[in-house]
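Fig. S4 source data, part A: sequence.
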Amino acid sequence: MRNTAEKGAVKKYIANLRRKIQYHNYRYYVLDEPEISDAKYDQLFQELKELEQKHPELVTADSPTQRIGAEPLEKFDRYEHSIPMLSLNSVTTREEVRDFDERVRRMLGEVEEEVEYVVEPKIDGLAIELVYVNSVFTAGSTRGDGKTGEDITQNLKTIKTIPLRLFSDDGVRVRDSDSNHDSDRDQLLEVRGEVFIPVNKFKELNAELEARDEKIFANPRNAAAGSVRQLNPRVTASRHLDFFPYGIGKVEGKKFLRQTEILDYLRKVGFKVNPLIRQFDEIENVIRYYDALKERRNELDYEIDGIVVKINKIEQQEKLGVIARSPRWAIAYKFPAREEFTVVNAIQVQVGRTGVLTPVAVLEPVQIAGVTVSRASLHNEDELMRKDVRIGDTIVVKRAGDVIPEVVSVIKSKRTGIEREFQMPRRCPVCGARVIKEGPILRCIGVSCSAQLKERIKYFASPHALNIKGLGEKIIEQLVDREMVSDAADLFFLSKNDLMKLERVGDKSAENIRNALEKSKNTTFSRLLYAIGIRHVGEQTASLLADKFKDIDTLRAARYEDLIQIPEIGQEVAKSILLFFEQDSTDELLKKLERAGVRCDEHVYGKKAVAGTDLGAEEEVEWWSAEKILDGKTFVFTGQISITREEARSIVERAGGNVALSVSKRTDYLVVGEEAGSKLEKAEELGVKIIDEDAFRAMVGYLFRSWNKERNKKK
């Protein structure tokens, strides 16, 4: 009896905890009015997670912990809609809108009968349906052909503005997860709406994809559709999708008289309803609102391509009925198209900051959505071939929001025979270096390519590379623009007078930069490997290579078989390293660095060379000898400690250790500060030794004392 009572108490406590979290999710994601701090929310969520781990039999499908708990799918199942999801007839002129109003009134049979219109922004996303049984989200699907869609339930669970359990219609209480009331049985609600990606998140996503050399999305709608149809729900969860409901399908246990009642109800039970929805009695007011919203469309953080005009009264909707696959009681009043026809005058190749070659169509200038467009991206060689774009072609070009204009398609019926095919170059058009194909893209691999030079030097001088203090973005841009450097090694041959020729660089600034350059010459092998910008070689990989090969000559002599034997270095990374050292420009860069006096000594007997730190001159370490107190040990830091990550890294490296960015089986110590993140949980799972800052200080006590001594001296 006691065990049963205890289990009942735990079950009740977990249910109450879920209600709290669901309520605070609603306050944060829907109302944008949080009542508790992020830390407090995380505490509640972690408590629920731990309790469910101890009592897996009490986990429910609507628990907040289940949003991204599903395994990847092999494919999506078909889903039959109980009521077809209709498409809307579109209009583009005021006359057509007025005709709709006249037709509606005539079909209702009484011209004098009151007609109310609900106007909703037409979200440019993906239409979906959500099914709730007894207030619990049980299934979700795409619109598909209107009758049959795809079951994407697990992906939709990851969207924070889609409630897993509905509030009661007073907008506060949440039904208990284990409710057995007869009134709750078999209640059905099908909610329909639009999944979309906010414009700012769309830009971030494309930037991330571009950084990984993956294909970017042409517009937010494609991004939303592609994200919600990922076979791995965790990928969908990372895309920051959002949702606005616009209506309902089949409903049991509830009756609505107006569209506005439906929207009010959806708002009360936990959905984020679009705040720009309006109700009007006159069609002229609808037209005026359309004009106002068209002016605001670029200010919104989501894409809209018009408005949807609906008859408000459900009785009138039913009376008007449907024709084919479209309702007679609603229309889409579309904004002017952001697509136009024009001619391709030429195709040019741009070389980006990472060496990616992008074909760009030079167009006969055309006005699109109030902007003159004269260039449009063709993205990559595969896209150029797929669309078969030729010089002289008539094309459809589009522009959406701030997205770079792109070629949609070629009007092949307009070809005359004088059009010319375009071939992407196999040598970089900027520096002449080899071009390699990586998936759909072509990339220049020259380390001295001027198109990439600014970014390469920024990378070379960054804190995790050679940490050249004072060499900021503006100075680097001037050095490259004035052709004072042709690669990163040229930095070390700049004189104080050279630097003083730059804008906003005086005597003191020039001297500081020269001192920083001199100091950065004493570095570690792993930092130098990271700094010279070998593709796919980040900090951790550089550290692994430095441990294995010890110096640059040994690494240059390494074979493919030698490289792939190193844990965490796969085929692609190995090929990239070999290719890097095959280039003549790489050989020239390394020779220049050697002439400049750049040293990669890991330690000098009794002394330590410190890369880019604030310690100044090398310090005597009497007890050090040839041994390193942290030799070969890998550290990871998480949370807030009293020194910066860069300072911590330098201290570990001075003592012969390595610092990694993430916890793995190779990690020896996780140093934990305040507000530790997910790395702590990962370390516990892997059995990694966990220490606090005091323990870390004790391990490298002398170095901390010398560090603080120098810092105080500088202050």
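Fig. S4 source data, part B ends here. Confidence is low (pLDDT under 50) at residues 171-184, 602-627.
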